[in-house]
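pasting for ref
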Amino acid sequence: MKSRNKNQSKAGEFGKIKPVSTPEKSKEINEIVSFFKTLAMLLVLAIFLRASVVEAYKIPSGSMIPTLLEGDHILVSKLSYGFRLPFIKKTIYLYDMPQRGDVVVFSRPDDPSTPFEDESKINIIKRVIGLPGDKVEVRNRQVYINDKPLHEDYAIWGRGGAPEGNFGPGIVPEGHVFLLGDNRDFSKDSRFWHNGHYLPINLIKGRALFIYWSWATPITERIGKIIR
């Protein structure tokens, strides 16, 4: 009888779930907390890099043909001209100036009356043409900088778009630039902006570096192409 009770007692012990010791529980909790801390740090780092260092953009329109085609995916350096904090639209510290010919991404000026083409409500990409102090004029499909014709092997005109592309002459104010799309007859740029024809430099988000992906054919000729 005692032997049977003893066996039943042992069987009962086998059926019980032993509680995890406190040190083991603490170790598991610490590992979980550590995992989520690492995940949070990586997320913060990714947000910081995207906002302040480099960001990917997709070209939404043909205003920069032939340099950039609709659907091209590009990388933009946000450290080319200055430093921007995450979620701040303006550059807070400017240490270099855009150069004529740079292809830049910038924030849309806050003017709902500005007739930007429907390429983006937030980001726009154009080429820097006029620098602070420059006298800029666009006449009969020719750009003049300080009364001298500007040689542009990247620009195209006369593809059946809007013919009213003349501008100026005008002087680019200090701290501003004058921008044009490469596809001149299909680009709503500095020539047409209602809130002022010149963009504040601190609204520039960065300089376009290269095409990292494209659906245009042949793909091999576009992927990795440096944007000039």
